[in-house]
Design a protein that fits this description.
alpha+beta; Aminopeptidase
Length: about 110
């Protein structure tokens, strides 16, 4: 059975690995992935806590039979400094930026076989 839950302090650990450590949109300037995963995860957790306090929900985890298989992250562009570095320019203040939509590869492969 497929279920979808808001990301919170209790289930943050269920955010799939690549997304739990990715800080691309939360930073600006040259992107450096040399930071250790525990530090990246802590910074991502802090980002989520800040946005949840200021805005409310900003992400969901998708579960299939209780196993985390997907993730989506979104918020107003002001929470994603890198957005302003793109040629498209800054988004309007009333828009929401979809920063990540991730489905685990093994799940996609199984769906494609059906």
């Amino acid at each position: 059975m497929l279920t979808i839950e808001k990301v919170n302090r209790d289930n943050f650990k269920d955010v799939p690995g690549p997304c739990r450590y990715c800080l691309y949109w939360q930073t600006s300037g040259p992107f450096d992935e040399k930071m250790l995963k525990p530090e990246m995860e802590q910074r991502k957790r802090e980002w989520f806590n800040k946005v949840i306090r200021e805005l409310g929900n900003c992400g969901f985890v998708a579960y299939l039979s209780g196993f985390p298989i997907g993730f989506i992250q979104y918020a107003p562009a002001k929470f994603f400094p890198r957005v302003g570095e793109y040629a498209s320019g800054p988004l309007s203040e009333d828009s929401v930026f979809l920063a990540c939509l991730y489905i685990a590869n093994k799940i996609r492969r199984n769906i494609e076989k059906d």
